[in-house]
Amino acid sequence: MENFSRRSFLQKVGIGARTATVLATQSSFAHANQQHYEGKKLNIALCGLGRYAGYLADSFVDAKYCNLAGLVTGTPQKAKDWGKKYNVPAENIYNYQNFDEIVKNKNIDLVYIVLPNSMHKEYVIRAAKAGKHVIVEKPMALTVKDCQEMIKACEDAGVQLAMGYRLHYEPYHLELKRLGQDKVFGQVRLIEVSLGYKTGNSIPKEWRLVKALSGGGPLMNLGVYCIQSSRYVMGEEPIAVTAQFGKITDNEKYSEVEESITWQLEFPSGAVATSTSSYNCSVDRFFASADDGYFELHPAVSYGPFRGRTSKGELNFPDVNQQASQMDGIGKVILDKQKLPSHITGEEGLKDMNVIEAIYEAARIGKRVLV
Ligand code: NAD
C-alpha cells in the first residue's frame, strides 16, 4: 500500500469537503499506517482460523491501531503454525472448549468471529460474556432473532458489537454512498448490483452448501453485500421485496441451499434495486442510474482493486487494504472510548438480516413481501 499522508491522500483522490470529512473520520488513518504511532493498540483475537481469517491475519501489517494478539482454533496444529507465523504467545491461544477463559486475559480487547455463519451467535455471546468487544463476520447470524439476541448480549455485557463490513471503510464505496445519499446526480431511480462466483466441487460439501451451517446459499454469503450497498447508496430502508430462486442445475450440490437468487427491493422514494447472487456464474458489479447521470463500479464488491466511473468521468481512488482499514476504523473508535456509529454495529447486520428473511420469504411464496 502506498504511503499517503492525509493531505496527499485527499489531494490524490481529489474529493470534496464532505467526503474528506467522512474519510477522515472513518478511514483515512488506515492510509497513514506508516506514520509513527506509539499509543495503545487494540489487541484482537481471531476466532476461527480459516481462509478469511488468513486474509485478516496478513492485514495487521498494514494496521496502525490494531495488533493480532490472540487466536482461537479447534486444530492444535493451526495453533502452533499460526502462533509461530504471527508471533502470538501460547497464553493467548485458545480452543473452543477453553475459550471462555479469555475473560481472565487482560491482553485481549476484542474477539473477531470468523467462523461459519451458524457459529457466529454462540461465539459473539461467549466473547461478550467474557467482557470482550466483538467484530462478527457477515452475515451476522442465521436469523433476525439471533441477531437481536447477539445485540442484547453485547449491550448487557457493556461491550461493542461491530460488523465485519469492510466496504464501509473503502474509498470507492464511501464515494458511492456520497453520490447516492447527497443526490450528486439527482435522485437515484435504479440500482443494479450483483455478486456471484462459480463454486467448485467439494466432497464433503463445504459448509456454505450445508444449510445448518450457512443458513442459506449465495444470498446469505454474497447477497448481503448487494443489500448493503443498495441500502447505503439510497440512505433508505427497503419497504418491500419480490424475489425468485434460480433453476437448480446440480441437485446434489444444491440439495439444501439455493444455487442462485434474484430479487428486487422497493425503496420509499420509488427507487428499485435489483440483484442476483449466484454460485453458478461470475459477476461483481454495481450500477446506479439517477435523474442526471449514473455511477458504477466493476469490480465492485470483491477485495478490489475496484474500478469505477460516473457519467462525468473516471473515479480515481487509492486501492486500500480493506481488512486493515476496517479493523483500524473500528479499533480507533474503541480505543478512543467512543460509541461506534450505528451503521458499523450489529444494528446494521440486523437490518440486512431482516431484508434477507423477506427475500427468502418472497422467493418461497412467489409474492411481494413487505419488509
Ligand atoms: P472457512 O471455511 O475458510 O473457515 C472457517 C473456519 O471455521 C475454519 O478454520 C474451520 O476449521 C472453522 N470451523 C470451526 N467449526 C467448524 C465447523 N463445524 N464447520 C466448518 N468449519 C468450522 O470459511 P471462511 O471463508 O473463512 O468464512 C468464515 C466467515 O467469514 C463466514 O461467516 C464468511 O461469511 C465470512 N467471510 C467474510 C469475508 C469478507 O470479505 N468479509 C470473506 C470471506 C468469508
Which descriptors would you attach to this protein?
binds nicotinamide-adenine-dinucleotide; alpha/beta; 12 helices; disordered N terminus; 6-stranded parallel β-sheet; Rossmann fold; 371 residues; 9-stranded mixed β-sheet; Dihydrodipicolinate Reductase, domain 2
Task: Describe, in short, the structure shown.
This protein has 2 domains: 9-165, Rossmann fold; 171-318 and 346-370, 2-Layer Sandwich (Dihydrodipicolinate Reductase, domain 2). Helix content is 35%, strand content 20%. The chain has helices spanning 6-13, 17-26, 28-31, 51-59, 76-85, 120-129, 144-157, 171-181, 211-214, 218-234, 322-335, 346-365, and strands at residues 42-47, 66-72, 93-94, 110-113, 133-136, 161-163, 188-196, 240-245, 260-266, 272-278, 283-290, 293-297, 308-310, 313-315, 369-370.
What's the arrangement of secondary structure elements?
Layout lengths: L5 H8 L3 H10 L1 H4 L10 E6 L3 H9 L6 E7 L3 H10 L7 E2 L15 E4 L6 H10 L3 E4 L7 H14 L3 E3 L7 H11 L6 E9 L14 H4 L3 H17 L5 E6 L14 E7 L5 E7 L4 E8 L2 E5 L10 E3 L2 E3 L6 H14 L10 H20 L3 E2 L1
Parallel strand pairs: 1-2, 1-4, 2-3, 4-5, 5-6, 7-10
Antiparallel strand pairs: 7-11, 8-9, 8-15, 9-10, 11-12, 12-13, 13-14
Helix pairs in contact: 2-8, 6-7, 7-12, 8-10, 10-12
